[in-house]
Amino acid sequence: MTSVSEKASLARPFAPALEKLRGAGLRPTRQRLALAKLLFDGPDRHVTAEMLHGEALRARVQVSLATVYNTLHQFTDVGLLREIVVDAERSYFDTNVGTHHHLFDENSRALHDIPECDVRLDTMPGLPAGMEVSRVDVIVRMRKA
Amino acid sequence: MTSVSEKASLARPFAPALEKLRGAGLRPTRQRLALAKLLFDGPDRHVTAEMLHGEALRARVQVSLATVYNTLHQFTDVGLLREIVVDAERSYFDTNVGTHHHLFDENSRALHDIPECDVRLDTMPGLPAGMEVSRVDVIVRMRKA
DNA sequence: GTGTTTGCAAAGTGTTTGCAATTTA
DNA sequence: TAAATTGCAAACACTTTGCAAACAC
């Protein structure tokens, strides 16, 4: 049994996460709330399923890796996350869903946003009829010199 | 036993492929020659291991899928191919190793070069010390409107 | 209560590897 | 003949799925 005040005090740190889930029409389960908190509290970030799972466990949140995968995809489907394909070995998810580009460290495999890189695509070549651009990804790859 | 004339007539269509392998310091084995011919005869192309393996079999060239994978990576290592990360599900290899960008069809999963798309990266943000840009990938993703 | 979500373990996918047999130089 | 290459099958890493139990509303 959970008292009203206990619930309120417990809920407060989860309020932003709760909003996000509510707004997206996803049931605020314990797991989803905890993952949303990890993802969206604080600055933008880039995670892999494995990373987020590890963080959750360290934060004493019981979640299975399968649920982390499912949750990341659900969040992506409702536009809370953006999936970035930079590395054939694993999938990255970005909490920044606005238009921006990426800087990938090939040594550490860390992914960063490029904040103010002006990319101009001149002469976008004619797409085949009935096709539209769904997105343009720019990935600057760096490594130890 | 193979006669000299038979060898010569057989070798002619493989001459460009042979050059490539020689130049790269790779032994021209039957498999590598056949794969090089499929890859480099004709216009630039984008292949996955599965695709190239299928083609080889259809052309009555006996190659195992493992060898196709190994060969694609060897070719990539010596600069004959470039690996493109566009799809989390599979790896693409591009015979065009010059600077250029890509157009990816999310429906058919076909990959194309963008021939003359001028991409200007202004204000390349300062890289961390000791790091250099190894490459910039630009991927325009399109899908059915 | 009813439909949704979870966790597990099993299955799946694309890819890599160990090693004996084969091929190249 | 010595060294490199191949093919197979097993191993791999990451990801998805089937289904019963747990949960949200």
List the helices and strands and how they pair.
The structure is a homodimer of 145-residue chains.
Chain A: H1 4-11, H2 15-24, H3 30-40, E1 46-47, H4 49-58, H5 65-77, E2 82-87, E3 90-94, E4 101-105, E5 111-114, E6 119-121, E7 131-144
Parallel strand pairs in A: 4-7
Antiparallel strand pairs in A: 1-3, 2-3, 4-5
Helix pairs in contact in A: 2-3, 4-5
The structure holds a DNA duplex (25 and 25 nucleotides).
Describe what this molecule looks like in 3D:
- Two copies of one chain form a homodimer.
- By secondary structure, chain A is of the alpha+beta class.
- In chain A, 36% of the residues lie in helices and 27% in strands.
- In chain A, strands 1-3-2 form a three-stranded antiparallel β-sheet.
- The structure holds a DNA duplex (25 and 25 nucleotides).
H/I helix tally of chain A: 5
Radius of gyration of chain A: 18 Å
What is the oligomeric state here?
Answer: homodimer
User: What is the approximate shape of chain A?
Assistant: globular
List SSEs of chain A in N-to-C order: HHHEHHEEEEEE
**Major sheet of chain A: order of its strands?**
1-3-2
Helix proportion of chain A:
25-40%
- Total strands of chain A: 7
The fraction of residues assigned to DSSP E strands of chain A is 25-35%
Tags for this entry?
3-stranded mixed sheet, 27% strand, DNA-binding, 3-stranded antiparallel sheet, 145 residues, 7 strands, disordered N terminus, homodimer, alpha+beta
Could you give a short description of this structure?
By secondary structure, chain A is of the alpha+beta class.
